[in-house]
Design a protein that fits this description.
With 375 residues, the protein is mostly helical. It has twelve helices and seven strands. Mean pLDDT is 85; it is low at 202-207.
Amino acid sequence: MLLLFLFISKAYYNNDDWVKYFLHAGHLTIEGCKMSKSLKNFISIKDALKQHSARQIRLMFLLHSWKDTLDYSTATMEIAKGFEKFMHEFFLNVKDVLRASPSSGPGAFCKWNEEEIKLNNSYYEGKTKIHQSLCDSIDTRSAMEAMRLLITQCNIYIQEKRSSKQVPNAKLLEGIAKYLTRLMKVFGAISGDELIGFPIAGGTQNANVEETVMPYLQTLSEFRGQVRKIAREQKSMDILKLCDSLRDDVLPELGVRLEDREGVAAVIKLDDRETLLKERELALKEAEKKRKAKEEAKRKEQERQAAKDAQRRIPPQEMFKKEADKYSQFDDKGMPTHDKKGEPLSAKQVKKLAKAYQQQEKLHNDWLKSANNGS
């Protein structure tokens, strides 16, 4: 049908160069089913935007090949949200590295070691892979995976540098972050003027929120770090709780995430307020879940110990007499001699019961000794 329309248009307008490329998009399904009003799974773009951001929906499409079937589902959107968070955290970490590094002068340039050369090679390999993917029938899925791999390598590099108390190369990371930001702008996932990262909620083109508030936040963070250090030295738990409250309760309400690191300054990240509040809510739920699991494990351990102590209190002479449904006669020591039908027990059964009798005798004697020592 498309070819027919093409031929008709060429003939009517007498134009041999009417269309150069066709993009035949794949089907869109909803939770594995065809979208239709009869199935009551019809979702408009406006409805989707009420549940997810425009960037998240765009990332969902970018993470799939345009020519294949795309299933719009909770799982698919979670993958898109995970990719968004993954990139966002990378951009925030790079910004933290840039703030901690000189922007000019000799200190702004660092000698490259093996780690920097390796990361730079990965950078150029990633750029090549992304370019080839986009030239290959606009394969955004492969391009996004190449971006994911490049970010992973950057994260490993930053973590290794911090673990060894070294400063990451700010210029190298800045170049990679700017490149990835430009790609996101090309894909339509970033619409602002930011050189690095996603726009901050509430930011405008006329006022860079990050540049405005960051000096105040750094001052606050440094003051809190000094107070926290003194409180830890003096073991002042009340002051430490106030420092934690500032980090966990106060700053998230303002769209600020503070991440403490041992021995170095805390990391300051500006983020969407609602996102931070959701993260805090999830963290509280997870903490409550762990607390309940710990209490349940403690309760079961107490029950197990109580059952063990109760078993130790039973004299071996009385142990088998409680099992009247299994045995009908016993000897002077309380050892069973006949089963419930009155038949004598076999030698094998007697041997097995004698072993259990000896074990119980040892447990009971140990309990008697501990009880006497306790008294």
